[in-house]
Design brief:
The protein is an all-alpha fold. The chain has one domain. The protein is 67% helix and 0% strand. The protein has 8 helices and no strands. The N and C termini lie far apart (49 Å).
Length: 165
């Protein structure tokens, strides 16, 4: 079913895949739904996921990525827009990855949030390349994971040089 839908709260809360893809409704907040989705992901991290044991967190992230590929493909098709700005599951999974591998201090988490948002917005190469050429669920998820990788590289240098503890 491919047609253009303007998502609202009733539509988003009308199915579990939409609810998840829209970050429990955070993707409906304007402006900057990606930032709101990242914030929702951070709050889920603080309230729940930071307590998941390290090795199991890798499994959770992989499962969330695979689920996200399906969610974003399905909901994007329902919307008639492959990478609708309100779909923020990709931001949530990516910030979980960054937070998992960042210093657990509030400064480390804030830095992780800011760096991820910067890289997700500016999309340096090759992020923009994949964002444009893979307009399916996998592509929607991949560009945010690449932004997370850029964030983690910068975080690594900040920690190694003593700028961030």
């Amino acid at each position: 079913m491919t047609h253009s839908v303007t998502p609202n709260a009733a539509w988003v809360f009308g199915s579990v895949p939409r609810l998840l893809a829209f970050g429990f409704g955070s993707g409906l907040i304007r402006p900057a739904p990606g930032t709101w989705g990242t914030l929702a992901g951070w709050l889920i991290w603080v309230g729940l996921l930071q307590h998941v044991p390290g090795p199991f967190m890798g499994v959770v992230l992989l499962a969330a990525f695979v689920l996200g590929c399906w969610l974003c493909q399905r909901v994007g098709a329902e919307l008639g827009v492959p990478d609708h700005g309100g779909m923020v599951w990709d931001e949530m999974v990516a910030i979980w990855l960054v937070l998992w591998l960042s210093p657990p201090s509030w400064q480390g988490q804030l830095c992780a949030f800011v760096l991820f948002r910067v890289f997700d917005v500016i999309k340096p190469p090759p992020i923009r390349y994949f964002d444009v050429r893979l307009p399916n669920g996998f592509g929607v998820m991949l560009d945010d994971i690449l932004a997370a990788v850029y964030s983690l590289i910068v975080m690594f240098f900040l920690v190694q040089t003593g700028w961030l503890v």
